[in-house]
Design goal:
By secondary structure, the protein is an alpha+beta fold. The protein has a domain of 90 residues: Orthogonal Bundle (Cytochrome Bc1 Complex, Chain D, domain 2), CATH 1.10.760.10. Helix content is 12%, strand content 30%. The chain is built from ten helices and 42 strands. The strands form twelve sheets. It has a five-stranded mixed beta sheet with strand order 1-36-37-38-39, with no helix packed on it. It has a four-stranded antiparallel beta sheet with strand order 2-42-41-40, with no helix packed on it. Strands 3-4-5-6 form a four-stranded antiparallel beta sheet, with no helix packed on it. Helix 6 packs across helix 10. It is globular and about 75 Å long.
């Protein structure tokens, strides 16, 4: 166990930026502190979590509730644009900005960190960690990053290639760097760092590619690894790291460790300073299907679970598993929120979560006791929950078999990573939710496959989803729901234009802010759901909004940038579908008068005149190579309408330089890696021929649909 005093923590935090940037919004340091926990509490209270936005979820409870009251239901329609900031990279922007002392810190695609003056929107510095762009092939769900952490003059970020980096908050220079993964394994980091008691806490992703999940704690001063806790057991022949892992192994069968096991902690991590407990959400198994992963059955702990750990040591305290023996990628890494609610006539400290599986859970935060649970979205994989234990009863026909079965929620869940917010004054949780359907079956001849990256293979433990999927059986839909966690029912519901939308923030003035996949940023009445204000950005919005003071004036900011699991190749909705999707931060203030910038309209499909193979055999071969190396980012037939470039719309200049882009790496700074060593010139030529053929077919279909083909 390790406990350290940081008596000057608040003072140093106030010096995150130059003295000229400090304002009266910042409170003075406390006279003294008694322990690391007292220091952390003092920072959050004295520095003013409302005047600033110091942590990913706004505070330790991660309720994203602000007591700032300048913007109200009566005047919210007077919000206008104060400034914008261009992120300059394609890819999903999922980060929540942090704000302190007049400076905004935000991460963006490829783990790039920006420091921005909150008065003007001008860049103070930008740090690109230099992630090799080829590593993007290991990111199942886009090269995103959800946020940074602030600690004693440092900005700490996790990178897509598994590093933890601390930057000087004033200059952006690297203070320390730690590699958190084995680089020969297919791990990524997309989640926001949390700092607890002087420790930087981070998990990782990669369960789709066959890894074993864990969460790590590093000394926030120097990057030294303090502890690491695995979330699923490894090979019993190697021994178990703890009694908890030995217990978990009893719930697995077969040789699960060959495919890593999964259970990655890729998003939600929160801390309760009163209980001194760290809560970790864990993910799906590898492969997804338990029939393949653990053929003898079992709950497969600690997949799809909430784990309570001791923050100083990583020691297991309790767990609650939302989806025992998960077959469906129903992770429990979705946002968690702490609150005090009355149950059975007494106040309880609770943890609330709406994981992918479609049920909203309320647990006792101290013990993990199940208090209540109810469907927040349509689901058909379970008969329901045991009212005493919260354990679901699987529907036999929903368990994967060699027949096609219609399942909801789909793999992206009823609720994904998008932030929720809880307003203790209305007693409601504001949830971005989604209804999706998928047909699944298990292929009888399923085997492990390899994924080649750079000059080596990641072995027989990748690309192991372990089922076949067919989408489009039913229409998908998205909603904003005000959920009553005590009554376990929706108070109001707002249908949204599309399935994939942004997170929420709520205020003491009974407002709820949310951005959408259609590019709109909207303020709702928190009590009724009535829309009170909107602005169109024409850029799909996914991340969580924040609010803070600048020179005593309340500002509201949100980061736009379409992408992520749904948006990497799929189009945004409404008018936003007509525009190229790149990252941009929008900041609003009462009386703001700046004009809204317009993104670039999408180019038409282009069919260049080039000397390329056109015979069926060459095009078939080009399509095969395209699917293996290109489809993950650029979508089917090269026709991505999401955050990645649509290759059917590529200009003549792109086509003239096609080999230099693919093999020479000329656009690597923009995110396109070199495939030198993986592809040769002839394969690149076949890929290009295939793309041009698909563009020709698309243009012909468009002309026919418009009457031009008659």
């Amino acid at each position: 166990m390790r406990t350290r005093l940081h008596a000057l923590l608040l003072l140093v935090l106030l010096l995150l930026v130059p003295a000229a940037a400090c304002t009266s919004d910042m409170a003075p340091a406390p006279d003294r502190v008694e322990s690391a926990r007292d220091v952390t509490d003092a920072v959050l209270e004295a520095a003013g979590p409302d005047a600033n936005w110091l942590t990913y979820g706004g505070n330790y409870a991660e309720d994203r509730f602000s007591t700032l009251d300048d913007v109200t239901r009566d005047n919210v329609d007077q919000l206008g644009l104060a400034w914008t900031y261009d992120i300059e990279l394609r890819g999903g922007v999922e980060a929540t900005p942090l704000v302190v002392g007049g400076v905004m810190y935000i991460s963006s695609p490829w783990s790039v960190v920006h420091a921005i003056d909150t008065r003007t929107g001008e860049r103070l510095w930008r740090h690109d960690p230099g992630v090799p762009r080829i590593r993007g092939r290991l990111a199942c769900c886009d090269v995103v990053n959800r946020g940074v952490a602030l600690y004693e003059g440092k900005v700490i970020v996790g990178t897509i290639d598994g590093r933890l980096i601390a930057l000087d908050a004033e200059t952006g220079d690297v203070v320390w760097e730690a590699l958190t993964i084995d680089p020969d394994e297919a791990y990524t980091i997309t989640g926001a760092v949390r700092v607890v008691q002087g420790l930087a806490i981070i998990g990782n992703g990669g369960a789709e590619y066959g890894v074993r999940g864990y969460v790590s704690a590093y000394d926030a001063d120097d990057g030294e690894l303090i502890w690491r806790t695995y979330t699923v057991p490894g090979n019993p022949a190697d021994g178990f790291e703890s009694e908890a892992m030995a217990m978990a192994a009893e719930t697995w069968s077969g040789e699960w460790w060959i495919a890593g096991g999964g259970g990655t902690a890729w998003d939600s991590i929160i801390y309760d300073p009163d209980l001194d407990l760290l809560f970790i959400g864990t993910g799906n198994g590898s492969p997804w299907s338990r029939n393949l992963r653990s053929p003898g059955g079992g709950d497969n702990l600690f997949l799809a679970s909430i784990l309570a750990l001791r923050p100083q040591t990583g020691e297991y305290v309790w767990h609650f598993q939302t989806t025992p023996g998960d077959h469906w990628d129903y992770t429990a890494v979705q946002p968690m929120t702490l609150a005090d609610l009355e149950f059975d006539g007494r106040m309880r400290r609770v943890i609330m979560q709406a994981p992918k599986n479609g049920f909203f859970y309320v647990l006792d935060a101290e013990t993990g006791e199940f208090l209540s649970g109810q469907e927040y979205i349509v689901q058909n994989w379970a008969e329901g929950l045991n009212l005493e234990t919260g354990r679901p009863t699987d529907r036999p026909e929903a368990v994967h078999a060699e027949v096609w079965t219609l399942i909801t929620p789909a793999a992206l869940g009823g609720h994904n990573w998008q932030p929720q917010s809880f307003n203790p004054e209305t007693g409601l949780m504001y949830l971005p939710i989604q209804e999706g359907w998928v047909e699944r079956s298990e292929p009888p001849d399923w085997v492990y496959t390899d994924l080649e990256i750079e000059d080596h293979s990641f072995g027989p433990r990748v690309n192991n989803v372990g089922h076949q999927s067919r989408y489009g059986a039913r229409d998908d839909a998205g909603f904003l729901v005000a959920w009553d966690p005590k009554a376990q029912e929706a108070r109001w519901t707002v249908p949204l234009l599309g399935y994939w939308n942004g997170g929420t923030m709520t205020t003491t003035t009974a407002l709820v802010f949310q951005g959408g996949g259609d590019g709109r940023f909207v303020a709702y009445d928190a009590e009724t759901g009535d829309q009170l204000w909107e602005v169109s950005t024409n850029l799909g919005i996914l991340g969580g909004p924040v609010t803070y003071l600048v020179d005593g004036q309340q500002h509201v900011s949100v980061a736009a940038g379409w992408g992520g699991s749904r948006g990497r190749s799929g189009a945004p909705y409404g008018e936003a579908a007509n525009y190229e999707q790149q990252g941009r931060i929008f900041t609003f203030v009462l009386g703001g008068t700046e004009p809204m910038p317009m993104p670039q309209r999408k180019r038409p499909v282009n069919v260049p005149t080039l000397d390329l193979p056109a015979d069926a055999a060459s095009l078939d071969r080009g399509g095969e190579v395209y699917v293996q190396y290109c489809r993950h980012c650029h979508g089917a037939e090269g026709g991505s309408e999401g955050s990645m470039p649509n290759l059917q719309r590529a200009t003549d200049i792109v086509h003239r330089n096609f080999e230099d882009i693919v093999l020479g790496g000329s656009r690597e700074p923009q995110g396109m890696p070199s495939y030198e060593g993986l592809l040769d010139s002839e394969q690149v030529r076949l890929i290009q021929a295939y793309i041009v053929s698909q563009a020709r077919e698309t243009r012909a279909a468009d002309e026919e649909a418009s009457g031009g083909g008659e």
